[in-house]
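Workshop exercise sheet. Pairs work together: one partner reads the sequence aloud, the other fills in the structure field after running the prediction. Swap roles for the next sheet.
Pair: D.N. / O.F.
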Amino acid sequence: MHNKVVYQTAKTIHRFGLPVLRFNFRGAGSSKGAHDEGRGEQDDTSAALDFLAAEYPGAPLLLAGFSFGSWVGLRAGCRDARVSELIGLGLPVGDLPSRELSYLEACDKQKLLMAGEFDQYCPPGKLKALVEKFPPHVKERTSVTIISGADHFFAGHLHELDRTIGTWLETQHPDLVVQHE
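Structure field:
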């Protein structure tokens, strides 16, 4: 929750006037419970979506996640009708068998997938190969951005992460007004 990538992403989304909720999965930080290999963490994500939907009734939800959080979040977001768009940062395609990501092939929601050029957990070649296997209608709704020179944590490249997410949001929602800090 306090990771610099998660923080920057939340800050960028908030700048567009969208509500943001950051949370720790079970067993992370001071959260109760124990790590559950992604199963229980999907329930955590669904609970967070339930909370946001109750706070902002009728509003479409955007779900963003980083690393393990992108794997869990995208899975939960793809199956939740309230979620209209997804952002996956550093999706761990290098660590998971391809069948673990097969849910993305059927997810035709707008998606932004980002990785650093030198991301050891989300190698750009593997990310691009994954998206290439998507059916045409899913592939056309999936944007892939590789940040040149960046690693998994986008060290030294958070401004590019911000700019890329901001540009994608502007494309998706030209009516949103950017709020200046």
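Discussion prompt: The CA atoms of residues 3 and 106 lie 30 Å apart. What would you look at next?
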